[in-house]
Design brief:
Elements lengths: L1 H10 L4 H8 L3 H7 L10 H13 L5 H7 L5 E6 L5 H16 L3 E6 L4 H13 L5 E3 L8 H7 L4 E4 L8 E4 L1 H14 L5 E4 L6 H16 L9 E2 L5 H12 L7 E4 L2 H13 L9 E3 L16 E3 L2 H12 L10 E4 L2 E3 L8
Parallel strand pairs: 1-2, 1-3, 3-4, 4-5, 5-11, 6-7, 6-8, 8-9
Antiparallel strand pairs: 10-12
Helix pairs in contact: 2-3, 2-4, 6-13, 9-10, 11-12
C-alpha cells in the first residue's frame, strides 16, 4: 500500500474519485464521510473510507470545496509591513476575528507603496479571498474607489480614506487624551512628533493635540510640530530637532510608540532623562513599552474591537456599507515616562 501511495503521489494528486473507487462507494459518500464540518460517522463503511483515504494520501481540497459553495472562507489583509509591531498586532487581531467566524486570514505586505497595494490586492483576489481589509489607506488616492467599482467587498482598518467603510480608533480623541495628560501635569511647551501627513491616524492624533492645546489656551510654536515616519529612526531624528530649539519643549507627544522609542533613545544620547528632564507619551501600547527601563506612558488602541468591526463591515449585505466609519475609543495608560512639573 505504501508503494501504491508513493506511486500515486509522484504521478498526480489523489482525488475524491480515487478514494471512492478504492473503497467501493460513491463519490458523495466519500465527500460526506470526510467532511470535517460534520460529526464523524462511526459506521464500518465510514471507517473504511477514512482508512482508504489515509492510505492513499488523500488531502481534502478545502479551497475547491469552498469555491463550489461560492466562498473560500478566507479574508485578505494588506498591511505596510509585519516588522511594524502595530501592523503585526492588527493582523493577529484580524486572524482571531476571522477564526471566530470560521474564516482564515491571509496577509500581504506592500511597504506602504500604492502600486504594491494594487498588486497585493490583485494577488489576494486571484486566490479567491472573499474580501479585503486594508490598513494602507491614503486620503485622496483612488485605489479604494477602484475596488468599490469592481464590486470587491472590502473595509479599511486603523486608517481611513474618509470615504470607504472603515474601522478605526478615535485618533483625535487619543491625541487629545495624550496632550491633555501632559497639560494636567503642568506642561505648556509640548512638542509633537507628528507622523506622516498621508496617514489619517497620524493626522487625527495631531488634530487632538491641537485641540487640547487650544482648549487650554496654550500657543503652539510651529517648531514644536515635527513631521516624521512611523519608525524608530524618524522618532530619534524628530526628538533631536525638538531639543535643538532655543526654547525646547518640556514634554513630547509621539504619535506612535516606535517614534517614542526613537525619541527615548535620542534623549538618552543627549544626556537628558525621561521624565526628569522631558516627559514622553507614545501611542498604541505595543507590548515592549511597558517593559522599557522607563515604562512608557501611551494610548492603548483597541485592536480586537477594530478587527471585529472591520470584518463585519466587509461582510455586510451589499449596498448597506455606505460610508460607514466605526470609531473605537482609545485609553490613556499612564506610566513612569511622564511627571508633574
Amino acid at each position: 500500500m505504501r508503494e501504491e501511495k508513493s506511486e500515486r503521489s509522484s504521478q498526480a494528486r489523489v482525488t475524491i474519485m480515487d478514494v471512492a473507487e478504492a473503497a467501493g462507494v460513491s463519490k458523495s459518500s466519500v465527500s460526506r464521510f470526510l467532511d470535517e464540518r460534520l460529526p464523524p460517522s462511526q459506521s464500518e463503511v465510514a471507517k473504511r473510507v477514512r482508512k482508504v483515504a489515509q492510505d492513499l494520501g488523500y488531502v481534502r481540497d478545502v479551497s475547491a470545496a469552498s469555491l463550489r459553495r461560492g466562498s473560500t472562507g478566507t479574508i485578505g489583509v494588506i498591511v505596510p509591513r509585519l516588522t511594524d509591531t502595530v501592523m503585526a498586532m492588527l493582523y493577529e487581531a484580524l486572524a482571531r476575528a476571522a477564526a471566530r467566524t470560521g474564516r482564515f486570514a491571509i496577509v500581504a505586505t506592500s511597504d506602504d507603496d500604492l502600486a504594491a497595494d494594487r498588486r497585493a490586492a490583485d494577488a489576494l483576489l486571484n486566490r479567491g479571498v472573499d474580501g479585503l481589509i486594508l490598513s494602507t489607506a491614503r486620503q485622496g488616492e483612488d485605489f479604494t474607489r477602484d475596488l468599490a467599482r469592481r464590486g470587491v467587498a472590502f473595509a479599511l482598518a486603523l486608517r481611513t480614506d474618509g470615504v470607504s467603510p472603515s474601522a478605526v480608533g478615535d485618533d483625535r480623541l487619543g491625541g487629545y487624551l495624550a496632550t491633555r495628560h501632559l497639560i494636567d501635569l503642568g506642561h505648556s511647551r509640548i512638542g509633537l512628533i507628528a507622523g506622516p501627513a498621508y496617514a489619517s491616524n497620524a493626522r487625527g492624533r495631531a488634530d487632538g493635540y491641537a485641540a487640547a492645546m487650544a482648549e487650554a489656551g496654550l500657543p503652539v510654536d510651529p517648531g514644536w510640530v515635527v513631521p516624521s515616519g512611523f519608525g524608530i529612526e524618524t522618532g530619534a531624528e524628530a526628538a533631536t530637532t525638538l531639543m535643538a530649539l532655543p526654547q525646547r519643549p518640556t514634554a513630547i507627544f509621539a504619535v506612535n510608540d516606535n517614534t517614542a522609542i526613537g525619541a527615548l533613545s535620542a534623549l538618552a544620547g543627549m544626556g537628558l532623562r525621561v521624565p526628569e528632564d522631558v516627559s514622553l507619551v507614545g501611542y498604541n501600547d505595543i507590548p515592549i513599552v511597558s517593559h522599557l527601563a522607563t515604562p512608557l506612558t501611551t494610548v492603548r488602541v483597541p485592536f480586537d474591537q477594530i478587527a471585529a468591526e472591520a470584518l463585519e463591515l466587509v461582510f455586510q449585505p451589499e449596498g448597506t456599507q455606505g460610508d460607514a466609519t466605526r470609531l473605537l475609543a482609545p485609553t490613556l495608560i499612564p506610566r513612569r515616562s511622564t511627571r508633574k512639573i
